Amino acid sequence: MTGLILDLFAGPGGWSRALTVLGAHDIGLEWDEWACKTRAAAGELTIRTDVARYPTRPFVGRTVGLLASPPCQAWSMAGKRLGLVDQPLVHQAVADLAAGHDTRERLLTSCKDARSLLAAEPMRYLHALNTAGEPEWIAMEEVPDVLPLWRQYAAILRTWGFSVWAGILNAADYGVPQTRRRAILLASRTKAARPPEPTHARAGEPETLFGPGRARWVSMAEALGWGATDRPVPTVCAGGGPGGGPEPFPSGSRKALTTSRERGSWKHRTQSPVTAGSRTTRSWVLRNNSQANATVRRLDEPAGTLFFGHRVNECVWLPEQPHAGSTPASPRPSCSSEAIRITAVEAGILQTFPAWYPWQGTKSRQFQQIGNAVPPLMAAHLLAPYVGARVRQDDFGLAA
Prior knowledge:
Elements: E1 4-8, H1 14-22, E2 27-30, H2 33-41, E3 45-48, E4 63-68, H3 82-98, H4 104-108, H5 121-130, E5 137-142, H6 147-159, E6 163-170, E7 181-188, E8 200-201, E9 215-216, H7 220-224, E10 284-287, E11 296-298, E12 316-319, E13 340-341, H8 344-350, H9 363-372, H10 376-387
Parallel strand pairs: 1-2, 1-4, 2-3, 4-5, 8-9
Antiparallel strand pairs: 5-7, 6-7, 10-11, 10-12, 12-13
């Protein structure tokens, strides 16, 4: 495969990390200062620019693949969701850009959230590239509410000779320790576009005459190397390596996390989470925000969707307090006084970034980058057919 892979709204490098593992590389366009610094520290090629203002001409005649994950804040359930109000304007912008008419400036004046219109930007690049019969393939990702827009893109791309698939995928079905649902668009000029076959399922499947069944969803404990599981788990640490790890937070503390955490290396907690002076092992849960409807998951489950926006980091570990009538699907967290905030390293691992990934900026900046990123393992499954590679779960430090 020759030619550039262009990554619009590249963020800290979710698509890029996937491509690196698969043996390919992209060039990212990104505006956020700290996301650009993270990409630079990770060795990813980046142009710091406003995607909405950068000219398309430098890429025409040179581009084989296009990636796009427009900012989701205008559409996300974590925000005000003004993108839904602006959706007719975004659809109009896409239709106009596909016809070669740039009406963005006029439509922007009517948008309730200026970020809404960024979801139309990929069409500006695609229209320009299509004049040269490019790109060969496309992959785009957004929050589920953007699916109607992806379907509009799909209808246009089919008239240009692409095979297109658009739908909702759950990252947990591809080995990500997080039930993160996203609207995905895949398109190709050279092969039938289809979603990758899921590798994991909520319940593991037995081997049959047709081959092995899907593995059980990867839990937070397995991904983090904390044990709390009924099968061998990987040790996630500097340098990696197999083996089971201990459970976290002895006596509600992080004493086992040394100052090396601040230097970017990951070390296990060295004791089990046992209440001081007691032999009672405590179970831990992860709550993904402070709202009443927050998702709460046990360590032996995947996390809920991690997002860190205007509320910064409200994602906390809590010891589970069993009570009558509690079920595996409805753990009951203890009081907030025992809450321990998730670290950027932990959150990054749950997004399938390596523990050593060089997040840059303040803690709040790092969490924003992590929450907005495409999980690299899921991205790898989406991209592998187009770059002629095969995804290996252990390349991402997770259990097979």
